[in-house]
Amino acid sequence: MKSRVAWSRSALWAVAWGLALSLMAPHIPAQTSPNERAFPQSKASVEKALKGLQAHMAGHLPVLDGFAQAGEHALDRYQRGYYQATVQVTPTASGGSVVRFTTKVTAWYSDPVVSRSGYQLLTSNGRLETDLLDQLAEQLAKGPNESGTNSAQASTSKPSAEPVTSTEPKISAPAAKSTENSGAFSSSLSQSLAEQERASRRAAEQANADKTSAALRTEAQSLEEILKNQAHPKNLVAVKKSGTPVVATPSLNAKPEFLASMHDEFEMLDFNADWVHVRISGLSRGWIWRNSIEMPEGIPDTDAHPVATQTPAADLFRELREETAPFPGDWEPLRGKSVKIVTVQKIDEGAKDAGQKERLAYTKALLDKSYTELARKPQELAGVVVIFDSADGGMIAATLATLQKWKAGALSDSALWHKCFFDPPETFDSPGSPASP
């Protein structure tokens, strides 16, 4: 019997301790991370104090070292840093609050390959969050009297909380002996002092903001000066239009490795009359149609002859006939489909300047002219074929879909040729070797 009573008492003690621990658990503060902190103030008080920190929760960073973690690239490869913080306030069971700041840091990454440059998201090292939490702690430490309005609200809200039969009016009775003018003067003086205090606080905050802005402007000017003083390579070529193909070999029949964007820059290694050899990255190389890029200073974009010796393509060829017939070749996009065939002939068979450039120029004019007819008959005609009827001639074919993209500006002239069919291919490739070894 005694053992049973002893066991019952032990069980009751265990239950009582368990209940006590479960009641105490909500009041035990949780471990917080470096970007969050617990405050004894209520959620409403914290959110009110956070309004004064809005101006400090986003802005430019003069440097990234000390504010962000180094990732795949070194921090000195970044510039134009910017941060933006968000805050989350969570109430606790004890009536306090847990404040958590999350900061995004972005910056412009400069890569030796211009096409890989761009804005990237970096990881904050916690300094920005700690600074914001420290500022919030200082704001909350000022107390309600610092706000300029909390004391007035407290004095007006207290009587409303008392019962109607309260003796509170006896305390304010001496004030009734004051004259009306003295009461007005006292109220005006209080308002004036409060306004002066608020004005002084605003002036101090503005002075701090001006100092910060001046420091940031000085740092930005210093960075801009450094960038200006950096030597800009003199052997860079720039792409004139987005969608310009970069190919592995200097041939209109080569499949593009990728399409470059407008203003992309590449290091020039070599060039000839029609093509420019460029470094893509590391050991990767490619060729770009010379008319599609801006050459370095002192080198023309095209290897043109003097104007007096140039002969327009329209003066070298003439249209012999036009017809609609099945595609006369084995190219998959037009195989077995009806196309418009334009047969072209040299005006003078002995002309020496009716080369690749002239044939392409004349074909471009015919494609532009024929597109209007194809657009009216999309169900009947699938493309255009230009046949050069001569000993050194050949055939060029383009689909209606390719011409539509070209006319809409989605394809550059060089990209158009890489979408066309050439037969035989070598007839339309550039003769000769590069201009420099």
Overview of the molecule:
It is built from 9 helices and 17 strands. By secondary structure, the protein is an alpha+beta fold. Among the domains are: 110 residues, no CATH class; 59 residues, Roll (SH3 type barrels), CATH 2.30.30; 122 residues, Roll (Diaminopimelate Epimerase, Chain A, domain 1), CATH 3.10.310. The strands form 4 sheets. Strands 1, 2, 3, 4 and 5 form a 5-stranded antiparallel sheet that branches. A 5-stranded antiparallel sheet has the order 11-10-9-6-12, with no helix packed on it. Strand 3 and strand 4 form a beta hairpin. Helix 7 crosses helix 8.
Number of helices: 9
Q: What is the total tally of β strands?
A: 17
Task: Give me the Rg, rounded.
Answer: 40 Å
For the biggest sheet, the summary is: 5 strands, antiparallel
The SSE order reads HEHEEEEHHHHEEEEEEEEEHEEHHE
Overall, the morphology is: elongated
The assigned structural class equals alpha+beta
CATH class descriptor name of the domain at 307-428: Alpha Beta
Q: Span from first to last CA? A: 109 Å
Architecture per CATH nomenclature, i.e. the level-2 architecture of the domain at 307-428: Roll
Low-confidence stretches: 1-7, 21-31, 147-186, 305-309, 432-437
- How much helical structure, as a percent, in the residues? 25-40%
CATH topology of the domain at 307-428: the name is Diaminopimelate Epimerase, Chain A, domain 1
Strand and helix layout:
Elements: H1 2-24, E1 36-39, H2 43-50, E2 58-61, E3 78-91, E4 97-109, E5 118-123, H3 127-141, H4 150-161, H5 168-171, H6 180-229, E6 236-239, E7 244-247, E8 256-260, E9 265-271, E10 275-281, E11 284-289, E12 293-294, E13 317-326, E14 338-346, H7 356-376, E15 383-388, E16 394-399, H8 400-407, H9 413-418, E17 421-423
Parallel strand pairs: 14-15
Antiparallel strand pairs: 1-4, 2-3, 3-4, 4-5, 6-9, 6-12, 7-8, 9-10, 10-11, 13-14, 15-16, 16-17
Helix pairs in contact: 7-8
